[in-house]
Write a structure and sequence with these properties.
Strand content: 5-15%
CATH superfamily of the largest domain: HUPs
InterPro entries: Cell_Envelope_Assoc, DUF218, Rossmann-like_a/b/a_fold
Distance between the termini: 30 Å
Organism: Micromonospora lupini str. Lupac 08
Number of strands: 5
Structural class: alpha/beta
CATH topology of the largest domain: Rossmann fold
Protein name: DUF218 domain-containing protein
Shape: globular
Pfam family, one: DUF218
Number of helices: 8
Helix content: 40-55%
Order of helices and strands: HEHEHEHEHEHHH
Radius of gyration: 17 Å
Strand order of the largest sheet: 3-2-1-4-5
Amino acid sequence: MPTTLRTIPAQHRADVERLWDYHNMHHEIRPVDVGIGLGSHDLGVAKIATELYRRGMYPTLVFTGANAPTTIKIFPRGEAVHYREYATAHGVPSGAILIDTRAENTGQNIEYARALLAEHQVQARSVILMSRPYQQRRAYATCKKLWPGVDIICASDPLSLDDYAIGIGDPKKVIDMLVGDTQRIDKYAELGFAIPQQMPDDVRAAYRRLVDAGYTSRLV
């Protein structure tokens, strides 16, 4: 694939970088009770979850995720199952991992992970939520809505925008996903799925320019 197809278009780079930075919560990582890896197409979730476990950031790790049209070919046995396989292959004891194989969206990720922890009598006063880089803010807002008493830290595989786009292999898809998640910050709060989040004017302007440029396939 030509390099030009794998990089962020120069005319949109500033706007894409603004959204990329907005969705990163920039939380400081510290020890918590539980790590929760949210299922998706991105194996980077399992990578950062494994790394943080090995650094002693939590004693219990939950992977939650069934399948979606975008993940069935990548993870045919289910997102959480493949994440667990990666983690155990890289040094996380199987006894430290709980998995939920039913969740099909972020709200269900949170609800089912919380129920699974309660079932296993694991007290979770603080959690690290691990997700795709551009999902951090939405995951945070969703968790705050559904699990308001828990202390939340968000984390992702620490890739740059360009490295992430190269890994996905399709920069348009990455931009479409960033635009879609930006829309969902307002939309999901309006629908009661998440708490409201502030969105600076320059982020809104960047979002609108990218919508006008045609990055709309992930809008709801």
